[in-house]
Amino acid sequence: MADWLRGGRNRDKVRDDAAQWVKCPSCGEVLYRPDLSANLDVCARCSHHFRMRAHDRILSLVDGDFEEIARGVLPADPLGWTDKKSYPQKLAADAEKSGMDEAVLCGFGSIGGHEVALGVMDFHFRGGTMGSVVGERLTRLIEAATARQLPCTIFTASGGARMEEGMLALMQMAKTTAAVLRLKASGEPFITVLTDPTTGGVSASFAFQADVILAERNAMIGFAGRRVIEQTIRQRLPDRFQTAEFLLERGHIDGVVERANLKSTLERILGYARAGRERRKRAELSA
Amino acid sequence: MADWLRGGRNRDKVRDDAAQWVKCPSCGEVLYRPDLSANLDVCARCSHHFRMRAHDRILSLVDGDFEEIARGVLPADPLGWTDKKSYPQKLAADAEKSGMDEAVLCGFGSIGGHEVALGVMDFHFRGGTMGSVVGERLTRLIEAATARQLPCTIFTASGGARMEEGMLALMQMAKTTAAVLRLKASGEPFITVLTDPTTGGVSASFAFQADVILAERNAMIGFAGRRVIEQTIRQRLPDRFQTAEFLLERGHIDGVVERANLKSTLERILGYARAGRERRKRAELSA
Amino acid sequence: MNPLLEREKGLLELERRIEDLRSASEGKRIDMSAEIASLESKYRQVLAELFGSLTPWEKVHMARHPRRPTALDYIAGFDAFDELHGDRMSRDDSAIVGGFARLGGHSIVAIGQQRGRDMKENLARNFGMSTPEGYRKGERLALLAERFNLPLVTFVDTKGADPGILSEEHAQSEAIASSLEVFAGLKVPTLCVVIGEGGSGGALALAIADRVLMLEHSVYSVASPEGCAAILWGDASKAEEAAAHLKLTAADLRGFGIIDEIIPEPLGGAHRDPEGTVTRVLDRVGALLDVLETYSLRELLDARYEKYRHLGSWRDAVAGSDGAT
Amino acid sequence: MNPLLEREKGLLELERRIEDLRSASEGKRIDMSAEIASLESKYRQVLAELFGSLTPWEKVHMARHPRRPTALDYIAGFDAFDELHGDRMSRDDSAIVGGFARLGGHSIVAIGQQRGRDMKENLARNFGMSTPEGYRKGERLALLAERFNLPLVTFVDTKGADPGILSEEHAQSEAIASSLEVFAGLKVPTLCVVIGEGGSGGALALAIADRVLMLEHSVYSVASPEGCAAILWGDASKAEEAAAHLKLTAADLRGFGIIDEIIPEPLGGAHRDPEGTVTRVLDRVGALLDVLETYSLRELLDARYEKYRHLGSWRDAVAGSDGAT
Ligand SMILES: [Zn+2]
Ligand SMILES: [Zn+2]
Q: Is the ipTM of this complex over 0.90?
C-alpha cells in the first residue's frame, strides 16, 4: 500500500478500546468499529450512513495510490479571532481530534481506471467549514484538473463558510467558482457528491455548480440551516426536509446513491466523461 | 407619405358607412372608427386595446418609410386541404376581408431613429396562425437582420400553428428558432411584443425566445388555449388567467406596455441596443 | 371508436384456433401439423391484409397502443443506462426520463418522453405530457450531453405538452421555446426517434435533430387529431376526419423532408414483437451515430440549419417559382 | 439595542434648539445669528465626534438605517431607467429590481437588492431577502447585459438570502451558485456597490465584479452578526460581539483586498444627505465605468479571475511563505 494511504490509516491505531464500539444513532445497534469501517461506515443493520473521514473516503474510492496536492497550504489567522478560544487553538484542537490539518484533502488518483482530480471534505475538522485553506486547496485542485485535462470530483461535507475567517471565507465561494468556470470552459466535466451535511456557502457555490450532482442517501443538504428556517417560520420542519431524497423529488440533484454503490457509479460517470474526452481529441486531431 | 404606407391606408376607404362605428367590447362605448384609428385602436373611454392591423401597427411605429421584404412569399396548399372549404378558398376569403395576403408583414424601418428589422403579425388573417409563409417571411427577416447587423423586433398575434399546413406549419417553429439562434450569435438583440392573442406554436417559439419580451396590456398569452385547459380541469378559469398582467406577476415577461407608450418604449430599448452595438464596434476596432 | 380493435378481433380468433389445435395435438397420436401450418399461413395472410395499409386514424391508434414499446423499453435495450433526474430547481418530471447511456461503441445521453403502460403509471407520468419542469429537465440533459461532449438521442412519444393550469403558470411556452433553442444549437450530434405519438410543440421540443427517424406506424402531427378537430370545427369527435387531413404518417413526413428515415415495424405493429422492434430501432440508431460521427461539428451544425431552414411550402411570386419541399 | 439612536438623540436635541432659535429670530428685531452660528459650530463638532469613529456594531445599524438610501434611490438618480421583470418562469421577486439604465454617457444594465423603506414595503419586498426566483431574475438580467453588450452595475443591500421553506424547495443553493458562475464569467464590465448591508452568500450572488465599491458606513459580512453569533455561540443576542470580530467594515475589507474602493459618506451617514450620497456614488460609478471601458474584454476577464484567485489568507508550509491578500 502506498505511503499516503498508510498514513491515513495509521491514525486509527492510537484509539483506545472504548472507542472501538459505536452506537448507531439511527437504529441503536452497537457496532464494532473495525466492522463498521469495513462496511464503509454504514450501519449493517439499518444502512445509516455515518459521516466518513476524508482519508477513509479516498481509500474507499481510489484504485491505487493518491497523489495529494496543496497539503502545504495551512490555516492562518487573518482576523486574529478569539472568543472562548483563539482561532489557532480551535484549529489545533480539531487537528488533534480529527487527524486532519484542514477540512479538505485534494489530489489525483484513479477510480476504476479513470484518472480524476479528487477533493474530499471532512466534517470532523471545523464542521467542514470553508475558509481560505479549503478554498485554496480546492482551487488548486480544480486548476490542476484543468491543466491536466481531467474531470474533477468533489465530495462535499460542510457547515458553510468559516466564521473565524470572516469575509475571506466568503470569498472562497467566488474563488472556487472562478476556477470551476475555467474547468468547464476547458471541456472537462465537474461532478460533486453531496454528503451529510452540505449547507451554506459550500452548498451555494461549487456543490451546486457541478454538471452531475449526486448525494449520499439521507444526507442533509440545504442553503439555510434547519434551525434558522424553523426560527423564521416558527414551526418545526418535517424530518425529510432537506434530505437528499427530498431534494431528488424536488429535482435539485441527479441522483441519490448508497455508499456501497458510489465507487461503481462514479466509475461509470467517469467512463462517460472519458468517452466525451476521446471524442474531443478525435475532433481536434481531424481538424 | 411613402408608397408602402399609402398602400396600407387606402384599404380603409372602401369600407361602407355602417362600418364606421364600432362598439367597445369592454365598456360598450360606441366609437367612431376614424377617432379610434387616431387613438391607435384604443378605446378612449376604457383603454381597451383593439386588435391592431399590421399596416396600422407599422404606421404607428416607423419614422418614415417601411422597406417590406419577402412580400412575394405567398401561401401554397401542400396538404391539398379541404374541409367545408378548400384551404385556398379560406386564404382568398381572409385576403379579401383583411387586405392582407398572409398573417405577417416583414421589413425594415426606423423607430425613433433606430433602424430595425420589424415583423408584425396580424390576427385578422387566419387568426394569425403560422404556416410556411409566416415562417419563411420571419426567417428571411431574422436572417436579414443578422446580415445587416440590426436588432429584430417582432409583434406577435397568433392562434398558433396553422392546421391546414399540418407538420409543415409546426416546422416553422424550428425554422424560426434556428434563425433566432444565428441572430443572437451575431450579437444583435431580439425583442418581441406580444399582442392579443399570442398562443400555441408562436408563443412556444420565437415569442418567448426574445431577449426582451414586452406585452400589450390585457393581451391573452399562453401555450394551451383557455378552452383546452378548462376542458382538462373541468372548471372555469379566472378572467385574469393568461393575461399580460398575470404573466408579468408570474415573471414570464419583462413588462406590460400601454399601446400609447409602445413606440417610445421601443425607442429606448433600441437605444440601449445601439449603445451595445457601438461598444462592440469599438472593441472590434481596437482589437 | 378504436378501429384497430376491430381488425385485431379477427386475428385473435385465428390465434386462438391455432393455439387450440396445438394443444389438442400435443401428446396425442393425431398429427395435425398440416392443419396448423395451413392456419398459420392464413394468419400471416390476414395479418398482411389487415396491416398492410392502415389508415391515418388506424395509425394514430397504433401509435397509442397500450402494449407498444415506450421510451423506457428502448432505454432498457441500451448496454448501460444511468438515469439522471430533475430540472435543478423544483421538480423531477417523470414524463421525461433521461441519463447517460451506452449503445455499442457509443456513449451518449438519452432522453425519452415516457407515457404510462397502464392507468396507474399513466397517472404518475401524466400520460406522457410534460410540464415546463419536464422540458427544463430535458434541456438540462441536452446541455449535459454538450458538456460531456456526447451525442444526444431522444425518443419522442407524447400527445403534447401538458395543458394544465400549473404548466401555464410556470411558463410552458417559455420552456418549449427555450428547449427548441437548445436543441437547434446543440454542439453534439443529435438523433431523434418518434416511437409513438409525436404531438405538436410538445413533441418538437425534443425533436430538432441531425437525424429524425420514425417508426413505420408512429405518427407526428401539428396537433393531435382530436385537438385539430376541436380547433377547426369545434368538435373533437371529428378526430378521424382530421387525421385523414393532417398528413401525420411517417410516409407523409418523409415526403415533406421533415423526417429522414422510416424504421419498418413487424406486421401488425411494434407491440407484436417489442423486443424485435427495440433491437431494430437501436441497431439503426447505432448505425446512424456511426455516420454522424464522420462529420465535423461545423458540418453538423450547418447541415442542421439548412435542413430546418428549407422546411415549408410556399409560392414565390417574385421569383416566379414555388418554395422548398 | 440600537447604539446609533443614543448618539443621534444628542444631535436631534441640538438640531431642535437651532431650529427654535431660527424661528424665534425670524421676523423679530433681536439678531440671534451669533448664537445660531455658535450652536451650528457646536453641532458640527458633535457630529464629527459622534460619527468620526463608529464601532462595527454601530456601522451595522448605520447600514440598516431606515432612511438610508436604497437601491431604488440610486436607480432614481440615473438619467434613464427602464425596469425589466421576472425570472421568465414563475415569479417576479421584488426584492431584486433591475433594468436598462443610462448614466452619463453609459448605457448599462442595473440590478439592485431592494429592502423596504417602511414596514409595508419591507413585507412586500421580503426585507430585501431574495428568493431563488430573485437570484434567477438577477442572473437573467446579468446575461441580458451580456446579450446587449452593456456594462453591469449592481447595488447590494441585503441581510442575506431568504431562509424560508419555499426558497429551500426551489433550490436557493443552486440559484446562488448559478448566479456566482454567471457573474464570474460575464463578458461585459461589471461594477458592484455595497450600499447598505452585504449579508453572506445572498449578497455575494450579485457582488462578483471587476470593481467592488462600498459606502463608508456600509458593512459586508460572511454572515449577519446575529447569524454569526447564533452559529458560533448559539445566541443571536451576542451580535455586537460578533460584529466586533467579523471585520465587516469597508476599511477592513479594503485592507483584505476584497473591495476596491470606499466611497465617503456625509458626516452622520448617508441618510443625512441622501441626494448628495446618491450623486457621489453615481459620479464614482460613472468615472469607474470610463476606466473599465479602457480595457479589452480579455483583460477584464483575466483581471477578474486574478483578483478572486488570490483572495484568502493561509500559510504555505511548503513554500515557507504566507498566502495571498
Ligand atoms: Zn443502524
Ligand atoms: Zn371601452
A: yes
